[in-house]
Write a structure and sequence with these properties.
The protein is of the alpha+beta class and 120 residues long. The protein is built from 3 helices and 10 strands, in the order βββαβαββαββββ. The protein has a domain of 80 residues.
């Protein structure tokens, strides 16, 4: 796993990185507290538009690209970049220009278990 670019939020805080691993590029963010970082209405994950733009322009067009978010309960939320872009909606809630995708579109991984949509 190799870090290619650090990602910063609108306040200049480091919030993740663009990584390269086994021929795949992805946005990687960890330590996300679902009660603070996840949208409530609708239930969704949002990312800074500039981070999505950075991933879109990194590497070759044919390189597989995805987004991986790890929350504080060690659930990894994953979505392909193409799906993210197709399903994304604009979010303007005071944290910069963001795009969000509802939870049902994300695949979740926890302790060897994979599920689609919301964990119950």
């Amino acid at each position: 796993m190799k870090e290619l670019e650090a990602l910063y939020n609108a306040r200049g805080q480091r919030v993740g990185a663009i990584m390269l691993d086994k021929g795949m590029l992805y946005i990687y963010k960890t330590g996300l507290d679902r009660s603070r970082h996840q949208l409530k209405r609708p239930p969704a994950w949002a990312l800074d538009r500039q981070h999505i733009d950075s991933l879109l322009t990194t590497g070759q067009p044919q390189t597989p690209k995805t987004i991986r978010l790890v929350d504080t309960t060690h659930i990894t939320w994953e979505i392909g970049l193409e799906t993210f872009c197709d399903k994304a909606f604009d979010v303007g809630r005071g944290h910069g220009d963001q795009l969000a995708v509802v939870l049902q579109e994300w695949t979740q991984h926890k302790a060897g278990v994979e599920t689609q949509g919301i964990l119950i």
